[in-house]
Amino acid sequence: MANVDFDFDSLREAATDVLESAAQGVNRIAMENLEFVKGFTRMCNDGWLQGWHERNGGNLTYRMTDEDVAAARPFFDAKPREWVEMGVTGENLAGSFFLSTGSGKYMRNVTEDPAHNIGIVEINETGTAYRIVWGLLDGAKPTSEFPSHFMNHSVRVAATDGADRVIYHAHTPGIIEMSFIVPLTDRDFTRRLWQMMTECVVVFPAGVGVVPWMVPGGPAIAEATSNLMKTYSTAVWAHHGLFAAGPDFDTTFGLAHTVEKAAALYVAARAANGGSEDWLNKIEDKGLVDTCRDFNIAINQAFVD
Ligand code: 13P
Ligand code: ZN
User: N or C: which end of the chain has fewer CB within 10 A?
Assistant: First the structure.
């Protein structure tokens, strides 16, 4: 019989590596099958199918429930990554967990490979920093718009008594086109969008806020956007797209979809009308007010005459 020298240390190391990567694979599959992760990845794909996410355009975050965290925790990394200061503070979000798309990641790839394109972050006890606890593999980071998402979450949690959980940013073409031809005020955008389609005033009765063009990706645009989010569930980013907030994926996607459809209608109707806003027929202010009365919805009075 041949005399074999066993190197037990390297054997043990190799076995550990195999077990670790098998465990990682199992964790990935288990995580990707959780309902909130499936809802999140579906929404990324829905936006892609609408044509709102060229390249890495747009991003999505979801504030997890305690039940989501309990279900996901067994699949978190053995060792969380380093804390990263955000440059903004959300005290009411201390200790929260968020699922976030990755910076530079493409929405069209999310469903195919969640673990590389999205990840879960934990917020520290002062609401100033995050650390990655799952996903965003191979050195990826949460979206560069995380400060805006985080501040919007902070404001919407307060405004809705904790109901809002989703913040969505999309590069919606109709809204971008409108920024060229409509004065950049909340009132000018809201009135035009409400008038495009009967259901608009029902879907966003508070109206939309407008952030003038700003450099994206930092605390300044986060501050400007979250100030508007105290009043509105939708904020237009001039020449860039929109932010929408809501309690779940359906409502938030539906809101962005409605606003963007109205914007596309506005641009098409105006072009068809030779560039003029002198419409032959339109929904009058009384119609907007009557609709809200019958639907038992509070219209933003500041935007009706
Ligand atoms: P991220 O790839 O960092 O999410 O940025 C995309 C984007 O839309 C910036 O506004
Ligand atoms: Zn963007």
Answer: N
